[in-house]
Amino acid sequence: PKGRYDPNEPLNLNVGVSSPLLSRFDLILVLRDTNNASWDKLVSSYILSGGSQGNIPTGNIGSSSSSLWSHDKMRAYFRYIRRLQPTLSQEANLVLTRFYQLQRSLSNRDKSRTTIRLLESLVRLSQGHARLMLRSTVTFQDA
C-alpha cells in the first residue's frame, strides 16, 4: 500500500499498481488492518502464549468439533476436485454474459478492468465454485 488505505480511492491508487496489471488477477483481496484494541489484545495474547490456549482468535478454527474435516481429508478432497473440468450450463452462460455486458455498458466503469479478461475471470471463478461444490456442470448458483 501507498500509505494509509483510502476506501474512497480506486484500488490501483491505494496500492500503487497499475490498472492493466491488476486486470490480470481473477480476484483481488484487500486486507485492512483496522485499529481495534480488543482484537489486538486477543491476537497478541494468542501469539505470545504460543497458540496453546485453545482460543484461536478466528473463531472455531482448531476446535475439536467433529464436524470439521481433518487436514488429510481436506487435502484429499482438493486433490479429487482439482481433476474436475466443469462445463457451463445455459443458465450460467446467460448470467455471465449479461453481467459482462452490464459491466461494459456502465458509464462509470473502470475500462482497464472490464476487458475480455473480466469475462474469462468470471468463467474461471464459476468453474472453481462448481469444482468446490463437486459439480461437473457450472450452475446458475456457481455463476
TrEMBL record:
It holds the Pfam family MCM. One of its GO terms (cellular component) is nucleus. Residues 1-47 form the MCM C-terminal AAA(+) ATPase domain. GO terms for biological process: double-strand break repair via homologous recombination. Keywords: ATP-binding, DNA-binding, Helicase, Hydrolase, Nucleotide-binding. One of its GO terms (molecular function) is hydrolase activity. InterPro entries: MCM, MCM_dom, MCM_lid, P-loop_NTPase. This is DNA helicase MCM9-like. It comes from Hirondellea gigas.
